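Usage example:
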Amino acid sequence: MSTTGSADEPRWLDDDERTTWLSLAGVVTLLPAALDAQLQRDAGLSHFEYMVLAMLSERPSRTARMSELAGLAHGSLSRLSHVARRLEEQGFLARRACPEDGRVTNAVLTDAGYAKVVATAPGHVAAVRHLVFDALTSAQRRQLRTIGDRILGQVNPDGSCAG
Amino acid sequence: MSTTGSADEPRWLDDDERTTWLSLAGVVTLLPAALDAQLQRDAGLSHFEYMVLAMLSERPSRTARMSELAGLAHGSLSRLSHVARRLEEQGFLARRACPEDGRVTNAVLTDAGYAKVVATAPGHVAAVRHLVFDALTSAQRRQLRTIGDRILGQVNPDGSCAG
DNA sequence: CGTGAATGGTTGAAGCCTCAAGTCAGCACG
DNA sequence: CGTGCTGACTTGAGGCTTCAACCATTCACG
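Running the assembly step on the lines above writes:
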């Protein structure tokens, strides 16, 4: 495969880019799986479910509208809707019609949901620390933040979320 | 939430770590979704299916045993087995019993499968370049490689893959 | 040799996500 | 008012992944 980069022949990744990409591909595949495994084993939650509860727990009144919450958890509205039904059945959150705008649904974290987050967070934080931060110097941590923001800017330009 | 770090009270993430983690969490959630979308739209393949075909295409004789291929594609053996059946139905790969070890199945990329990779790679590479490398300086690219390898070392210590 | 353990892979069921379609509320305009 | 349009969300079907159970083969070791 050439590296000339003509019009219909795309610029291939050079060796360095290729290795970097394989490494990143491994991370984006395996890291979510590892976090899901820890949460599933210790709390019976998927990473997405945990994100939903955790994001809600940091909101004023532990409340957010569905579409906003979907963005915070980096998922589609449809996905959130399905997950919200399951979490509601388990008593971790409640959905209420918004009095100001009849189209809007507000998701509210229940006391049981808040307790679940409090019980689950330490193990999850420990996993994140072990899998990500323990292997990095503080300089690398700063670099990672910048790099992550840059990539996120490309992947998700308007900060919201497709669905 | 305190930051004392006693025995049963875990060390919480400080503000900087927390922001870094939210950024990385966004990347590991949204980047695979974006790549899946491009591949699905332009080639009718999932990112995992593409990885399977692409990894095979770079092997001598375009052949690998199933468990080895699962590791290369960062998936479980079960997942690969299901995917291999679908790819086989589409004529992109074939499975043969290994003559040397009756337990082993070898996956072989067919000519149609190789052609599919050749046809699909340019668009995929362009997506990776746009989503990842276009936003980074060459220094950041080098940093990303190191950081990715470090994290991968924690997530996947023995280089193989859970299944 | 022969038996038990370990390895490599496949399968079926159950659950989750995506996609497209549908519902209902607000808004604009005649 | 009422007609059409957009926005917010829900729902159902279909496909993919996971999990556990299973089958076949090889290896270890009396």
